[in-house]
Amino acid sequence: MAAARRPADRWTGVALAAPALAVVGAFFIAPLAMSAIVAFRSKGGGFTLEHFSKAFDLYTTDLLFTLAIVLLSTVLIGLLSIAIAGYLTLGENPRAVAMLRWLYRWPLFIPFVVAGQVMRTFLAKNGMLNHVLIGSGLIEPLSAQSMLDWRGIVVAFVWKQAPFVTLLLAGAMASLESQHIEAARNLGARRLRVLIDIVLPQVRGTLLVGLVLSFVTMLSVLSVPLMINPNSPTMVTVDVAYRINTFADYPVANALCLLSLVLAAGGAWFYLRHASKKIEATA
Amino acid sequence: MNAMTLPSPLRSLLRAVLLALFAFAIFGPLLNLFLWAFAERWYFPSKLPLEYGLTFWYRVFQPRGNALASLGTSIWIAVLTVFLSLAVAVPAGYALARLRLPWRSGILLAFLLPQAVPNLPVYVNIAQVFYQIGLNGTILGVVLVHASHGLVLAVWIASAAFASVDVSLEEAARNLGASAWTCFRTVTLPIAAPGLIASAIFVFLESLDEFTGTYFVGVPDVTTLPLLMFNASMGGNYQIASITALLLLIPSIGFMLVVERFLKADVLAMVGR
Amino acid sequence: MKSRLIAFASALAFAGAAFAQTTLNVVTAGDQNMVDYVNNYLAPKFEAANPGVKVRAVGTGPGDSGSQKIYEKLSAQQKAGTAEWDVDVAVIHQLASATMVNEKLLMPYRNDISAGKLVSRDTAKNALGANVDGYVMPMFHSQIVFAYNPELVKAPPRSFAELTEWVKKNPKQFGYNGVKGGMSGVGFVTGWVSAYSGIGDKLEKGPFDASSGPAIDKALAGLKDFNQYVVMTPGNAGTLDMLNRGEIAIGPVWVDMFYTWQADGRMSPKMKLALPSPGLPGQPMYYVIPAKAAHAQLAKKFIELAESPEVQADGIIKQFNWYPGIDPQYVQPKLDQAAWNKLFTDVSPQDLAKYGRPFPLSPYFKEIVEGYERVVLK
After folding, report:
1. Residue B36 at interface with chain C, using a CB cutoff of 8 Å
2. Average pLDDT of the residues in B126-131
3. Which of B5, C100, C141, C217 has the fewest CB atoms within 10 Å, i.e. the most exposed one?
């Protein structure tokens, strides 16, 4: 505590962070700045907002759609990962816990593009999900629906990202002191209460990291919406690719990128507020 | 009336059913992958492949196709990316967690950028710069691009991992006379290790998943398997896409197993000291 | 100089090549079978004829996005001022070729090779209205057609008017991929506009008339109505995918993709093709040589080989069942009648000549596609 207040540490801190900053600065931020310039440059070379107004004119629906889908996915991921990680920590049947631990990780190793591909065949009208539902008598063949719209995108995202957040959460929960949990259980508290009142508050930081990272990642994925639902309304990444590939319209594509960045920054702001509060609390 | 008060056999049944449903949710879509990897003919109206075979495996592994070499390159690049990312992320994460950094939020946000932006237009600019400085077509160039992408995972998770180490433990060590470096090495690092290992796994997986940057900076000298997988997937060539995805599963899972095993032994060794 | 050294060292290290070996880099847009074609068929022939040369083929992905990636790589090298570029031969679509010629990224070569005289079609000189004469040679020609399941569709619609009636009686049985998912959907839209705007010929031949907006918008309004009865599919491959699973019975597809899917076992051999009147667009894929290719001479020899009548007959037609890039009269003598007729199983040469059209001129193309976003999607 006292150590952190010495002025010399300020610059030690900067020196320690410098290499990482240099890598991301040189190899992403600088090129991003070049893109940003293109978004604001008019044909004659001056400053203009026309590309942004065109982007809003054509793609406001898609921007809102993107935000809605990614937010919904993030919420679902949060709920699912809390449930799974909670059971892994508090579950009483060792076989079930072991099986769950083995099961949930698989989607981690599947790249987004493959996740999009398997979901396209799984969720289609004549896909595996409907075959199983019809085969087990749960739905009528005629009422089989194709989920290849916003629902398919959400399913693909949740399927792929929930294991990531779960892994982080389970690790954080496992490193908690078990005395608190045991004390509460000895007092007769139900496991759900223990989860919500004791475990969750302590791992909130990790949960937030996982969710914000997921939120931001999902915003920039191209392959999943392109494979499941590229027709309007669709995610902004599809529109970026469309502007580039059909019109070679880099200015509007870069404008859309910057707008997407604003959305991501909004999500990141939540984490940063929480994180700085925590640092101030421990300082 | 909730699940906790159900009689034991009913509870077991509920547990089994939920697990089965969960297994279906995880493996149902993946089953498709396995089927397509071995399907030679599959179309309506059959629900399962009509003919199975290894023709497409031969196609992927044909000598001129370089699949094995691409796989090797991909793994090598991923390993280098992990090393580079951790090397710069551990000091940065520690600084962000423990030391007073100016513009702390801005720094954290900076690492977020590569993941936050649809990176197609940006990589065009990177290609241009790399051509100018001669990094195009080199492994180092590709590793730098992958690292800049993966650093957000490495730095954010490292920072969270270090922040979760109890400060009083560090203070105790310092009070006993340990230097800052010894304190870091023997107290902070071992406790934060699980988080760091997790971030290593994610950076590795991220690198194996990356193809846009690899195309712009590496092709035609450096070709990776994810490139082939992406092209096959987008073109609807399900057999080749599934086979390459299965191939890429091997290093991914292998890396995780190796790293987790190493971690357990190390941490246990630390506990005794 | 330093960048040349690094590039040279890397090439040594990672290609494992001996000092005397030259590597010819062929970068191709399109599906994996294009890469396989170069690797398995063209490369061995070329390497046998040119000892000391190794051909390296890389794919950039299907559709115009694959071609756009090649454009971006060449453009990046141009802006960086690199002396020798790392692509020797590229295979691209029409849209990208027009841009590349415009920005001086390509080298004219057609008049330097003898195979250059074997193409007389308009597509060898004109890419969506842009003059690309001398810079390109068509590798093969493809055509958008309706693929349909004859067991579900007894009498396929033979014209757009028939199609409009058909979808009302058979809702959700027709699917296409809009404008954002791939060119087969875009081609359907431009075909629709050509059929219903009344200015079909002007759209393809010009001149560009800025006042044709209302006619185009009127046709698009009809398309908006049409869309209620159809399924929107996720892309070129998405349409084929849905046909594969029987979720739609008929949809516009690229002929070359269709035959590839059939050969790979992803499409029932019973599926048939139909070309409706007044027509659907088609386009070739082009061989091009970048302006500063490191091995321009070798590149020309490579294209010479690929465009020779024997290779076109054996490779393009026999292997893939695609329409040849050079004029058919040079290729037909190299094939037996059965192989030749296989090309025209469902779509006769007469139909192809009448209903196989080019895409509209570039400014009209942009108007139609942007109009779709404005009128149909809003």
Report:
1. no
2. 88
3. B5
Q: Considering only alpha carbons, which residue of chain C is nearest residue A152?
A: C234
Determine the distance in angstroms separating the CA of B64 from the nearest CA of chain A, rounded to an integer: 24
Residues of B in contact with A92 (CB under 8 A): none
Mean pLDDT of the B67-84 span: 92
Q: How far from C261 is each of C240, C253, C375, CA to CA, in Å?
A: 8, 11, 34
pLDDT for the residue numbered C250: 95
Shortest distance between the Cα of B90 and any Cα of chain C, in A, equals: 30
Residue A178: partners with Cβ closer than 8 Å, 6 or more residues away: none
Question: Do C178 and A230 count as a contact with CB atoms less than 8 A apart?
Answer: yes
Higher pLDDT pick, B202 / C290: C290
Neighbours of chain A (3+ CB pairs under 8 A): B, C
Q: Which tokens go with B208? A: 């194996």
In chain C, which residues have their Cβ closer than 8 Å to the Cβ of A230? 177-178, 180-181, 234-235
Q: What integer pLDDT is reported at residue B273 of this predicted model?
A: 25
Q: Are A247 and C366 a contacting pair at CB < 8 A? A: yes
Please identify every stretch of chain C with a pLDDT value under 70, giving residue numbers as ranges: 1-20
Q: How far is B54 from chain C (nearest CA, A)?
A: 12
State how far the Cα of A256 lies from the Cα of A235, in Å rounded to an integer: 11
| Stated pTM of the model | 0.88
B246-271 pLDDT per residue, tens: 998 888 888 878 777 765 544 433 33
Distance CA B273, CA C21 (A): 59
Q: Which residue of B has its CA nearest to A18?
A: B92
Which residue positions in chain A have pLDDT lower than 50? 1-6, 282-283
ipTM, two decimals, is 0.84
Question: Given a contact as 3+ CB pairs under 8 Å, which chains touch C?
Answer: A, B
- Tell me what pLDDT residue C3 has: 60
Nearest CB among C6, C240, C265 relative to B51 is that of C265
Q: How far is CA B76 from CA A88, B222, C17, in A?
A: 34, 11, 20
A224: contact with B, CB 8 A cutoff? no
Looking at residue B66, its pLDDT comes to 80
What is the C-alpha to C-alpha distance for residues C31 and B68, in angstroms, rounded to an integer? 20
Chain C: residue nearest A247 by CA? C366
Of residues A28, A108, A159, nearest to B114 (C-beta): A28
Taking an 8 Å cut-off on Cβ atoms, the answer to whether B121 and A35 are in contact is yes
Strands C231-232 and C126-127: unpaired
Task: Report the share of chain B in percent with pLDDT over 70.
Answer: 93
Whether C180 sits inside 8 A of A227 (CB atoms) is no
pLDDT at position A158, please? 96
